[in-house]
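Re: weekly structure request thread

Next one in the queue (51 aa):
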Amino acid sequence: MPQMAPLNWTLLWIFFIILYLFFWIINYYLFIYKPSKSNKPTKKKKLFWKW
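Done, posted below.
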């Protein structure tokens, strides 16, 4: 049990970092593609929130 606890913590931290980076990339992508096309970002946002 004590050996598994730090491993779970590290995995949790890695997961949070990946999630944060993923969210940042999506926001950046939507921010770039918003002025060119107004319909596509909303669809992507809906799909992201559904997932």
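Helices lie at 4-33, 39-50. The CA atoms of residues 15 and 26 lie 16 Å apart.
Next request, please.
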